[in-house]
Amino acid sequence: MRCAIPSFTEVSSPELQDLLTRIRERIFLPAHVNKSQRKLIFSPKHAKSLEVEPAIANIAGEDFRLRHLELTRDVPSRRTAVLNALRLMKEKRDWDNLPNLLGGLKNAGCQHGPQVRLAVVGKAGKAGRQDTVLECLRRAEFTGLTLQHLEMAIQVLYWMAQKAVAADWDAQETKKALAWAEMVRDMMEEPKHKVMPKRDIPEYFGTSKDQPEVPGILLQLAAVRATQTGKDEGGKVERYAKELLGAPKGFQEVGKGVGKEAGKDTTQKVHTSHPTFWLSTHAMVLHGIKVALPLLDAESKVGAGLKAKYEELEPLVLAVRDQLVAEQETKGKPSHSVEVYEKLLGPGSKALRSGSSEETTSNV
């Protein structure tokens, strides 16, 4: 028996419901029928006969009436379909359909590029649906959403941490964000998330977990959490600080052309592929180091090493921030990454004040 066609549950708007129905009937269904049935659907010579004499396909106990489809007119672009669905998803019940949407498209032979995968994570993150992203990653064989690509892995961690940032470091939200980020880190050890696809050329050597941003974001969440509770449970601050210091890739290599490598003029254009993405993630790492330093023995190897890491990263972050601020003034459009920097490290930032107790909202 052929596997069932992924279905969708009730959503919040007729527009989204109509789009998901069309995706199921016009993309999912043709991928599940046999060769002769597919010919009935797409061959123009069968169009009239299908209207007069209905043909039924039974797939996993569900009956589908076959209708003629003109490939270029009736079948939506798979990339456009995903992006439109993401745009229309507003409520939790909408986002609950994301795993089946991705799984159905994967089963239909759709291989989304990096930009679509990043859009999925970014849109879900902005909507506060990090739990849905985790579910898609957990079911990676079905959904096709994995942590194999470095930028994707860091983007996922970034949005896990944003759960706490957006809540102004509420103690419970910070606890949840740390737990989710650690789940993502654990997933990086699983084979389905570990092997880089042959068609992808990695921008950085090593696996995702070897990059400094991974322990850097975990350090941020662990340090904030330790500040809130007054204790470093499980020694996580020191653990992630050690992992950050031991990462085989250095920040100066990631930020090539910045700071010392760029000479004295730190206002020159920074040679990073995606400066906005770079600033957002590295502002988090820099903030994490800053919060962690008072929690560690300054005379210890880890404490001294982390201070040196801060001094290495800070000028790189400032250079990228200055570049984006200049571009922002020229374009007249606010930069999300600059806003992240200001929220975490800017003057008067709540994120740099002393934390509150477990029972209250924390400003770290």
How would you summarize what this structure contains?
This protein is an all-alpha fold and 364 residues long. The chain has a domain of 195 residues.
Please give a structural write-up.
With 364 residues, the protein is mainly alpha-helical. It has a domain at 158-352. It is 60% helix and 3% strand. It is built from 19 helices and 2 strands. Strands 1-2 form a two-stranded antiparallel ribbon. Helix 1 runs antiparallel to helix 5 (78-88) and helix 8 (114-126) packs parallel to helix 11. The protein is elongated. Residues 201-205, 252-271 and 359-363 have low confidence and may be disordered.
Describe the main β-sheet briefly.
2 strands, antiparallel
State the distance separating the first and last CA atoms.
Answer: 56 Å
State the share of residues found in helices, binned by percent: 55-70%
Widest beta sheet: strand line-up: 1-2
Q: Would you tell me the overall average pLDDT?
A: 86
Report the count of strand segments: 2
Radius of gyration: 24 Å
Strand percent estimate = under 5%
Low-confidence stretches: 201-205, 252-271, 359-363
Tally of separate helices: 19
Structural class: mainly alpha
Order of helices and strands: HHHEEHHHHHHHHHHHHHHHH
Net shape: elongated
Record keyword descriptors for this entry:
364 residues; 3% strand; disordered C terminus; mainly alpha; 2 strands; two-stranded antiparallel ribbon; 60% helix
Chain-wise SSE layout:
Layout: H1 14-32, H2 35-42, H3 47-52, E1 55-59, E2 62-66, H4 71-74, H5 78-88, H6 92-95, H7 98-107, H8 114-126, H9 130-138, H10 140-143, H11 150-166, H12 171-187, H13 191-194, H14 213-229, H15 236-246, H16 251-254, H17 275-292, H18 301-331, H19 336-345
Helix pairs in contact: 1-5, 1-7, 5-8, 8-11, 9-12, 11-12, 11-14, 12-14, 14-15, 14-17, 15-18, 17-18, 17-19
